[in-house]
Protein 1
Amino acid sequence: MPQSLIPFPSTTHPIVPISRRWIAFSVIHKAGGPSWAVVDSSTYELHSEASAYLHYLLGSARSANTIRAYAQRLAAFFTWLGPARLDWTDGVPVVSRFIRELAVTALNAPEGNAEYREPRYRSGKTMNQYAAAITQFYMWAARSDLVSEKTAAGFYETRIAYGYSGDRLLPGQVLRSRAVRVKEIEEAPKLLNETGAESLLEAVSNHRDRFLVALMVETGVRIGEALGLRTEDLHLFHDSRAVGCVSVGPHIHVRRRQNPNAALSKSSNPRTVPVTEAVCTLYYLYLEDRIDRLAQDSNPMVFVNLYSRSHVGEALKYSNAVKMFYRSSGRAGLRVNPHMTRHTAATRWKRAGVPTRDVQALLGHRSPSSQLVYEHSSDQDLREAIERVRFRSSEPT
Ligand SMILES: [Zn+2]
């Protein structure tokens, strides 16, 4: 049992004067090594609760960087409490107010810089890191009987995720989310340039993922739409009349459905998107893998687990597809999230001179003002758009 320099908070701590400034401070534990505590900036007196919590984090094998970040966030919180004359044991109302004030408090300009600068503010992400650290502190405080279970429970909202089993909607996992959180503003979507898209396609490790990435990057379908595709939605023929479809040339149908992998097509209006011969070939290569690897296959979904050890043959999950994007793009020295492919497709069409109405039709965007022109996008227009910007690396080698 490592001996600690930090005493567990006693129940009889002295009345703390208001307006103390708390800082994160590097400490060395006798047995536990370097860590962080929260101390008074002038007297170096330990903040007992915050420091005891940080010591607990050290015991639960958190990295020094994590502990330092928690120390800084807790120090800021306890410093703010003083002048506000609030009691931290009140829980959520106090923490919510702290986070709100943090949002409107400008960051200090670098010292020695007299020049006027536009004030800078913390990002939503940073504020959520504060909220997360403080929420975790309260969870520990409840376990240590410093606040009531009821106070701690206020930090989490509970909801039940529903999922489909066959055609029946059933309650599933209980999800908990932090009650104190800040809406993060999304940055403008980033684009993949031509080389980026080529490198991503080359970095993908198997036929299924190569088909998925090529399909997304060439057609601009959302990842949820791609994962929600069923084999019956793929009309990869020159003539689909035999399957009751009059659209000319190979194409896919994007329809709104509730799918087993929780992929939900976002468009409420179904659309038809042409695909290139190269993408069709990638599909057939994937299909060969699927036939090889699955002894029995009755899954109607296009994208299924094939290369993993477990859940083989089941619908590919959204979270696993997203991980695949990060893994593959990481190998190519990029960081690509799935939505970038859609934005990239749209931008490439625009740059290649594809009319706005065709871009809208391809993306499935419904805009009231464009409903009339939308009708005039012919199959041929859409096909030309897709062919004009297709990738060479999506062609099988
Ligand atoms: Zn069709």
Protein 2
Amino acid sequence: MNSIENHNSDVIIVGAGNAAFSAAVSAAEHGSKVLMLEKTEEKYMGGNSALTIHMRFAYNSFDDLLPLIKFPEKPNDLSSFEKKISLLKDIVTSYSELDYLNDINKVTENKSDKNLSKELVSNSLSTINWMNKLGHFWTPTFENPTSANVVSFDGKGYGLINRWKKIAIQKGVKIIYECPVIDLIEQNNQISGVVVNYKNQNIKLFAKSIILACGSFESNSEMRAKYLGENWRNIKLRGVPHNTGEGLEMAINHGAVPYDDWSTCHASPQDYNRPNFDLPGENKSGDYWSRYAYPFSILVNQEGSRFVDEGETWRGLTYAKTGKAILEQKNQVAYQLFDSKHRRAGVLDNYKNPTVIISNNLNDLANKIKIENINKFLFNIDNFNKNISSNFYNPNILDGKSISNITPSKSNWALELNEPPFEAFPVIAGMTFCYGGLKTSKDGEVLDKNGDIINGLYAVGEMLGGLWYKNYPSGGGMMAGAVFGKKAGEKASIK
Ligand SMILES: Cc1cc2nc3c(=O)[nH]c(=O)nc-3n(C[C@H](O)[C@H](O)[C@H](O)COP(=O)(O)OP(=O)(O)OC[C@H]3O[C@@H](n4cnc5c(N)ncnc54)[C@H](O)[C@@H]3O)c2cc1C
């Protein structure tokens, strides 16, 4: 008998990203013997979760954040760190559950499932505290203390995933790598196991509950073209190439119902020359290729025209829809334009070795980036420059420095583009993940077309549908994975 058949488990978890580990550790804490099955090699484990930075959660004051923060051990580093922390303490106020819900409703045009979003928000801080007790730490996001994401994972997503792995193993969870799940087993109206392809053999593994946490279909070009549209077939991934949608298909074949918007997804502005995908720990992953200074820029297409309100609000509430806007432009490319005032203001400090075209002259810059109608481009810039409100420019707050009598408007951070050198950063859309998933209960139990629970089957993380529509608040995906993963692990163990 192949050794993996000897794993006698109560709960099988499919995948080894954040949602999977949250479910696995929670199930183990509730007395289950847990087996995790991951498609990739161990060195590439962690899925998209390993490329992330933070979770968005509600907090009442800085006092809720302080216990999460890992302080440096070296005395020299400690004193400067403590000074920064005390400055931060003066700036950070609260991010209430209502603020969080309002942000979700605003960005999803009020279409986020009300029960799920309320569950996410009201369990966010308690789930963070659970993670903290398990051994997870955060670090302050000193760069942008006034946005909702004031702390990020210590060691980013890669650090988080490696901590999850250690915690899970300590709790007795077994993880098998290079073990893709290819089907579910159904017996007597109950999902009772999975079929894996392990070392070229199809093997059946049984358990009382199966928790699917194996991502959405963002890495599958056929499914992208089918559900999102032909434009998305050849898009570069901002994440891993492993989330190819078979988890969703398997569940649907066994009676699960697709839920909410399978035609929209998360895609963000990326460097024109970014690689086709990222792998945890390789490819300079994470946000190395992200080009997120666009709220401060003038963003134009190949024709030389603006096409979005670049400064609508905080970047974390607009970036996930900006990729699609770029994909819809001619040649599927856009150019973020800045001048020396932006450089001095520090808004480009996060761009490390970017693709950039520089010139002292706007006409020459337009020629270099092959703007099709240079006269129109120069007119657009001039018109923009002449219509800026007199508010004081401040990239650290929503400064209201706007243009309003031009379409599209720019609601914040409108600065004249008139002081050379001028810099143009070509950007493309990078696919992050798909918003469509499966219909579930608030505990991640998968529901059928009658709204009844499919016994033994759960779906969490990217696979849980209904939370996101057209757009998304940064940090919501990882938080949802942890909240619903934890709940599913507990429910699967108690049942
Ligand atoms: C570059 C980048 C940065 C991001 N930053 C953030 C952020 O800062 N905050 C935030 O909230 N969200 C962020 N996101 C989104 C976030 O990554 C996702 O919302 C979240 O990781 C989803 O977690 P998950 O556990 O569902 O999926 P994943 O972490 O992708 O895990 C899925 C796992 O399932 C495995 N798998 C797939 N198919 C199978 C199969 N058939 N059998 C077995 N295993 C399988 C995969 O290999 C993978 O390990 C970011 C995404 C990217 C790409």
